[in-house]
Write a structure and sequence with these properties.
The protein is built from twelve helices and 18 strands. By secondary structure, it is of the alpha+beta class. The chain is globular. The chain starts with 10 loop residues before the first strand and ends with a helix. About 4% of the residues have low confidence.
């Protein structure tokens, strides 16, 4: 909508909630989870103007080239576009997300601030992937006045779409049906329609709009709602560094608000191909005092030649106690917890469906069956084996892998979490037998219905999705304006 301000086109912007958090509207997002343990669905996104940008942390990084290609070891992978097709839109997304320059090379940031070097890995295997941090931009407050004052943007709040009505041949959308909690009902007609209600709600609306199409719109082949993805996030290992080392580049989340970038460790494309694993990253966080004590006591058990290694820790600890200043980001943190974010493999069994219960407006509530695969777990194990070998080969520390990582592929720890990054329920594919929307995010079989956001993602990547979903939405905005013209 912001991209259409000042254009010749009239835009009706239907917001299901209001300008502020509303418990009644938020309850519409409640649902049931039937698969692997997941968060309460009503807690994972916000039903209000500006959506979940009112609740995000601001981490932004573009997807890698490998995320878009067809990988024979990753079933259902391969976007109909490539990374280079999004570069211009990534750059434009920086404006709306209030980010710095469209620069994500580690060399750029090292040159900008040489006092924050990256870890000395062989970049042919392990490299530092960079993130920039949005303030974070709260769209609902930052751009409210721009939307309200725009003469060609017509905003309606508390306008919850409950049905998408198609024509008789189910080849195009005729109108939208709206219900309000106060009992009012409305109809909205337009030339083109774009669903931008989030990955779960987009699928829910398509499935619930089943008057003309029994299985829901765009769902003749039972693909709507399938391939639900999130980013599994979990503590997986520890990095022990006996020497004083500046790790400031990796420490953004420790409250250094004056700096809007940070790095995480990952494997390059060739290494992923060699290991036949998914994309994955590891962030560094200082271990707690209890974790540090446990790791130090286990060093000799894990490494036969650990005496010198342990002595170095003891020497460093004594220097700290003596008050000696060191350039480390936390002088008591010689051990770091490695926090993993992993690309979830596209899995048709991981899906959104409609349940028997309905919300106050009569729309069936969703059921989420979140499922992981053996490839997801093996990726974490192979990644840390490789990372451990590289840390040891370069001689600046040791990796201690948590026990759960070495357990069978179907075993996950009870503290497994996610990024709350919903993706994939209306995936993009050129073939209508393999995806819900085409290369322009248009629903296959419907001439004027589009889907915006991460619901259209074919694969999940390992980076936070916001920058990519905004870039994809800008690309869709351009296409819609061309279509109208």
């Amino acid at each position: 909508a912001l991209e259409c301000v000042g254009t010749p086109y009239n835009v009706i912007l239907l917001e299901g909630g209001g300008f502020d958090y509303d418990t009644e509207m938020q309850d519409r997002y409640a649902g049931e989870t039937t698969g692997r343990d997941y968060h309460l669905l009503q807690s994972t996104r916000m039903h209000m103007f500006g959506g979940t940008t009112g609740h995000w942390a601001g981490m932004c990084s573009p997807y890698d080239e490998v995320d878009f290609i067809k990988r024979d070891w990753v079933p259902h992978s391969g976007w109909p576009i490539q990374r280079k097709d999004l570069d211009v839109f990534y750059a434009r997304a920086h404006k709306w997300l209030e980010l710095g320059p469209y620069e994500y090379s580690t060399e750029y940031w090292e040159k900008k601030e040489p006092i924050r070097p990256q870890l000395p890995f062989d970049k042919a295997k392990v490299y530092t992937k960079m993130w920039q941090l949005s303030p974070p931009t709260r769209f609902g407050t930052r751009y409210r006045e721009d939307i309200v004052s725009a003469k060609n943007i017509h905003l309606y709040t508390y306008a919850a779409v409950t049905n998408i009505a198609a024509n008789e041949s189910v080849s195009s959308v005729d109108e939208l049906e709206i219900k309000c909690l106060n009992g009012k009902q409305h109809r909205v007609k337009a030339r083109v329609y774009a669903l931008a209600t989030g990955t779960i709600q987009n699928a829910r609306l398509l499935l619930a709009s089943n008057r003309q199409a029994r299985n829901g719109l765009g769902n003749d082949l039972d693909l709507v709602g399938r391939f639900f993805m999130d980013h599994p996030e979990v503590s997986s290992a520890f990095l022990a560094i006996p020497e004083t080392r500046n790790l400031d580049l990796y420490m953004q989340n420790l409250g250094f608000a004056s700096r809007n970038y940070r790095g995480e460790l990952t494997l390059n494309r060739a290494t992923q191909e060699e290991l036949r694993i998914l994309n994955i990253t590891a962030g560094l966080y200082p271990a707690t005092s209890t974790e540090t004590a446990d790791i130090r006591s286990n060093i000799q058990r894990q490494y036969p030649n650990a005496k010198v290694f342990k002595d170095q820790f003891d020497d460093n600890l004594e220097r700290i106690k003596a008050g000696e200043k060191t350039p480390t980001i936390s002088t008591e943190s010689t051990i770091f917890r490695l926090f993993t974010r992993i690309e979830q493999a596209p899995n048709p069994a991981s899906r959104i469906t409609l349940g028997p219960e309905r919300d106050e407006l009569g729309v069936p509530r969703v059921q989420l069956n979140w499922q992981l695969t053996n490839l997801d777990k093996r990726t974490i194990r192979d990644f840390y084996h490789t990372l451990g070998e590289e840390v040891g080969r370069h001689g600046f520390g040791r990796i201690m892998i948590m026990d759960w990582v070495e357990e069978p592929d179907d075993v996950w720890p009870p503290f497994l979490g996610t990024g709350w990054h919903h993706m994939g329920t209306t995936r993009m594919h050129e073939d209508s037998k393999q995806g819900v929307v085409d290369v322009n995010c248009k629903v296959h079989g419907l001439s004027n219905l589009y889907v915006a956001g991460a619901a259209a993602f074919t694969t999940a990547g390992a980076a936070n999705p916001t920058l990519t979903l905004v870039a994809l939405s800008l690309r869709l905005s351009d296409h819609l304006k061309e279509t109208m013209n």
